[in-house]
Design goal:
This protein is of the alpha/beta class and 509 residues long. The protein is 44% helix and 11% strand. The protein is built from 17 helices and 13 strands. The strands form 3 sheets. It has a 9-stranded mixed β-sheet, with helices on both faces. Strands 4-5 form a two-stranded antiparallel ribbon. It has a two-stranded antiparallel sheet with strand order 11-12. Helix 2 (29-59) packs antiparallel against helix 7 and helix 8 packs across helix 9 (219-227).
């Protein structure tokens, strides 16, 4: 990104984040985020529609009728009374909250399936711009008018399709800022460095079906799509939290992926990504499930109609292997790849988890175990690990990487730098291409483990069992040490002499 684009991007970040000041002290961040993200979304789909309309006018030599006809065939349509400009013109109305609600409902109805879930709920039905949480009528109108005026800033106008990338990045930046501010998982967001790393490790080819069954705000899916380097792919996701599901849809639409299928619901209890009653199989499955979820659905798992947990049922108090099992089962046979972010306990906990782990290893599905630095994620400081499973794996060895010490420390969180990501992906690529062998292991960073080695460790995948991380103490130079001792002894003698002198002076007073 050149300096001019960087400056524009930073300007957008600054203006967008400043919108939060409008609501601070009135409602909590986990409440006002929905209002800001929704208006931001509406602003830019309105801008994009204007850009497309002018392109059609130019294409058809100013023929408005043909341009309007072409606009009616766009996948995302913004009706006149749902545009941002319409709301801005009505900013002084006494019933502004009602007008915004009506605009969103019309937007949903016009776009049908794109903005509705299977049960018939529209994506904006959970947000009320006429709610009393914004205050009395006068206060409410003041806040909403201020919000609309704020987003009318000329510095954040979308003037071309090329601007769309910056807008999409700004939206994800805003989601990340909300996640950081709330330090909660209600806006579940995988940090950019981690999502970029996982997308590179599981890079999909043209025509791929890519799925995130716990998609949160959609950031991981978007990174995986962008990583393909083409427009020939399809995105699928499912998210349990209704508000986060809405954010995911808006996020994905703002990035131009208007053919994505994002469902609302519990992936373990009620998987929604199905065809003809069967779970869809995907080329790439990625995910960042909630760490060690307690109430994950063990009751339903015992009688799962899709037989996802045939290797074993995880403990009631920890659902990590339930999500991993689901992801492996929906990966395409013989070619499907899975990348998942999980806590370290997944690597070594016993009982049923050990049995599942052993079965998966014996099936030769596990390809890589990658340890990440601590304090990378919003809401938890614990270190995590990326597991890569490959149904098309050609070798029986498993790659272990300890990348826990390579990161940049920032104010609130640690961050993976581009060089850290490159080192991990280069090492992984060398392993998959048979360029990294047992005799060429990277000391204190990577290790290629044989099946026998893993069995000797009783299927415990704790990275420290495979990657030597012990740092030997540096040897002591005897001459240097003696010289330091002599210096300290001289200083001690000098100090003792001064003390005796001061004591004599005190006696004479």
């Amino acid at each position: 990104m050149d300096n001019k684009k960087t400056t524009i991007q930073e300007s957008i970040y600054r203006i967008v984040w400043k919108a939060c000041d409008i609501f601070r002290g009135v409602i909590e961040p986990n409440q006002y985020k929905d209002y800001i993200l929704t208006i931001f979304f509406l602003k830019y789909i309105s801008d994009l529609q204007k850009v497309k309309y002018h392109e059609y006018l130019e294409k058809y030599n100013g023929d408005e009728e043909r341009a309007n006809r072409a606009m009616r065939h766009e996948s995302l349509i913004v009706p006149p009374n749902s545009t941002f400009n319409y709301l801005l013109k009505n900013r002084n109305a006494s019933n502004l909250g009602e007008i915004i609600n009506a605009a969103l409902i019309e937007l949903e109805d016009t776009n049908g399936q794109l903005m509705f879930c299977e049960d018939g709920n529209g994506i904006f039905r959970n947000i009320d711009f006429n709610s009393n949480i914004l205050g009395d009528l006068k206060s409410k109108n003041f806040l909403l008018k201020k919000l609309l005026v704020h987003f009318s800033d000329e510095e954040i106008v979308l003037n071309s399709k090329e601007d769309n990338e910056r807008i999409g990045e700004s939206y994800m930046h805003l989601i990340a800022m909300f996640a950081n501010e709330s330090r909660r998982n209600d806006v579940f967001f995988t940090p950019t460095g981690v999502s970029s790393l996982l997308a590179k490790l599981t890079k999909s080819g043209p025509g791929a079906r890519i799925c995130d069954p716990v998609c949160g705000s959609g950031s991981l899916l978007i990174r995986a799509g962008l990583e393909t380097g083409s427009n020939n792919f399809s995105l699928y996701g499912q998210e349990q939290n209704k508000n986060t599901w809405v954010i995911a849809i808006m996020n994905i639409l703002l990035h131009g992926f208007d053919n994505a299928t994002i469902r609302w619901g519990d992936t373990i209890r009620s998987p929604k990504l199905k065809e003809n009653g069967k779970l869809i199989k995907f080329d790439t499955v990625i995910g960042h499930p909630p760490f060690s979820l307690a109430d994950w659905g063990i009751e339903e798992a015992e009688n799962d109609p899709y037989n996802r947990f045939w290797r074993g049922i995880p403990p009631k108090s920890k659902g990590d292997w339930a999500f991993i099992s689901h992801m492996i089962e929906v990966a395409r046979e013989n070619t499907g790849k899975v990348g998942v972010i999980v806590p370290h306990g997944v690597l070594f906990r016993g009982a049923n988890e050990k049995r599942i782990r052993r079965q998966i290893i014996e099936e030769n599905l596990l390809e890589a175990v990658i340890g990440l630095p601590a304090n990378l994620f919003f809401g938890t400081s614990i270190p995590a690990v990326i597991l890569i499973f490959n149904k098309g794996k050609r070798k029986k060895d498993v790659l272990f990487i300890d990348a826990s010490k390579e990161y940049e420390s920032t104010k609130n969180l640690n961050r993976l730098r581009s060089e850290d990501i490159d080192k991990i992906t280069t090492t992984y690529k060398a392993f998959t291409e048979d360029a990294l062998h047992l005799e060429a292991m990277q000391e204190k960073y990577a290790h290629v483990a044989t099946p026998d080695e893993i069995q000797e460790n009783e299927f415990n995948l704790n990275i420290s069992r495979y990657v030597e991380t012990f740092e030997e103490e540096k040897g002591i130079d005897a001459n240097t040490a003696q010289a330091e001792i002599d210096r300290l002894e001289d200083e001690l003698v000098e100090i003792q002499n001064k003390i005796r002198m001061y004591l004599k002076e005190l006696k004479h007073k």
